[in-house]
Structure formats: structure tokens, C-alpha cells
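Feature request disguised as a bug: please show the residue count (206) next to Sulfotransferase in the output. Example input:
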Amino acid sequence: RNVMPKTLEGQITMEKTPSYFVTNEAPRRIHSMAKDTKLIVVVRNPVTRAISDYTQTLSKKPEIPTFEVLAFKNRTLGLIDASWSAIRIGIYALHLENWLQYFPLSQILFVSGERLITDPAGEMAKVQDFLGLKRIVTEKHFYFNKTKGFPCLKKPEDSSAPRCLGKSKGRTHPKIDPDVIHRLRKFYKPFNVMFYQMTGQDFQWE
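Example output, currently without the count:
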């Protein structure tokens, strides 16, 4: 609480850290600090997410083994290495189970990473409603950046440059063996189905 910025009456303090969702102690600690906290989780297809995660690491450590090597405990037997963080993070149902011990589903909003790209205004409308805010951010605040493959945010009613995602986003993914992608899809499918049931939302990753 001490490291949070001061919040005036009528303001909402927001804080983002991707690792909260997958850190076992986080739900208990956040609940003990402020049990009315509203939580927003952006999720995307776990296979794409794992490849994206690997791509980010590869940019910093070009010497790491290939994605195919890291993804398996035993490639011949097709045993996926679920202890590798790039794979483990995408088992959303597992992490959500931990959060639901402390927070009701009504306090958690799941934002689709795919729809955030194809319909940013639609997803932002849900976020604003969830936070009890007036819908100020709408279609007119976005335009699609073809180079990046992501939408950019125009600053409302002023002339300053639009806000686009930084250098670390939108990197070209390495080519991955289609058989590995097929095995990963198979691996995630039961977890995805469980996640859809838990959230009441079908993200259509299949």
C-alpha cells in the first residue's frame, strides 16, 4: 500500500504486473491489503502466448535452445514440459483456481487479447463498465498500425503523437514446427475448456 500513488476521492489507482496472476502468494496478499480490489486479466491463446514469451526471451538471450527443445520433456513421447514458465503461464484454469479462493468471479474481468487487437474499443467498453467509469474511450481513439499489427491509441482532443506499442511488442515470431503447435494445442485444450467453464466465457482458442 505504501508504494501505491496517493488517490484522491473519485480517482481509481491502477497497477499492472503480469506476474501477479501466476504468483501463488499474490491473491492472499492482495486480498489482505484490499479485498474490494477489482482485477483485470488479459488472456490470449496460450499457444500464441508461449511462442510470444519465447520470442521476447530470445531477443535478450539469442543463445537459448529452440522453442521445440524447451517445450518438451521428451519429444519422442510427446511429453510437454509444463514446468517451463512459457508453457505454465498459459494453464489459466490452474492460476484462476488460486484467485477464486480469495476473490469472487464478479471482481475479475477477463479481457481477450485477440479482441483487444481486432476490436480495442469493444474490449475497452467492457473495462470501463467493469470499473464503473463513463465510456470515454471509444472507436475514435484507435487506429490500426499495419507495421506493428496492433492498434494505436490517439490522444483525446489534442495534437500530441498517438501512443503505439513499444519496440518490445509486435516482434516477428520464429517459425515453429507445425507438429509442435499441434501437440501444444492438444495439451492446452482440456485446460482451456476448464477455463471457459470457470469464467463463463468462450475465448474460441480452438
